[in-house]
Amino acid sequence: MSQARLKFLRRMAWLGITCGLIAGGQALLKAADIPRATIHILVTDAETGKPINQARLTLQFQEPVSKYSFKRSRPVSYSAKTNPEGHYKFTGIPLGTVRLLVTSELHESYGKDIEINKDDQEIDVKLKKPQPLL
Questions:
Q1: CB-based burial of residue 26 (10 Å sphere; 0-12 exposed, 13-18 middle, 19+ buried)?
Q2: Which DSSP symbol is given to 63?
Q3: Which residue blocks in 34-93 are alpha helix, DSSP H?
């Protein structure tokens, strides 16, 4: 084998080991670097204050990545429905801005960007009745 080829193979092996260490450490850094939270949602009727059962919730956000990662953040969307008391709990949500969408029969749709900055954050959503058609 020529000296140039041997030098090239050694360099590629070193790059492979270096990239492997970066990629392997990336998973550890990603899990440790990104704080997560639990979000409690309560959906009620704006007029009566009664909880809304089976309200459809959609939570959208960009999945953050470690600053040491070569990957881009990707969009994530979770869907759920409220229980008879109008509650639902999302867990493992990264801190930062999320978009919450709420829909329910006989109510106007709700959508808002919300800043998640602590664990066990509570979000109260009051849905209005739709406007009458003219």
A1: middle
A2: E
A3: none
The tens digit of pLDDT for each residue in 37-68 reads 999 999 999 999 999 999 999 999 988 776 66
Beta strands at 87-94 and 121-127: parallel, antiparallel or unpaired:
unpaired
The pLDDT confidence band at residue 85, using thresholds 50, 70 and 90, is very high
Cα dihedral: 114, 115, 119, 123 (round 10): -30
Compute the CA torsion angle 91, 94, 99, 103 (nearest 10 deg): -10
CB 111 within 8 A of CB 104: no
Q: 3-class SS at 26?
A: helix
pTM, two decimals, is: 0.70
What are the structure tokens assigned to 87, written together?
């509650």
pLDDT, tens digit (0-9, with 9 covering 90-100), for 90-125 = 999 999 999 999 999 999 999 999 999 999 999 999
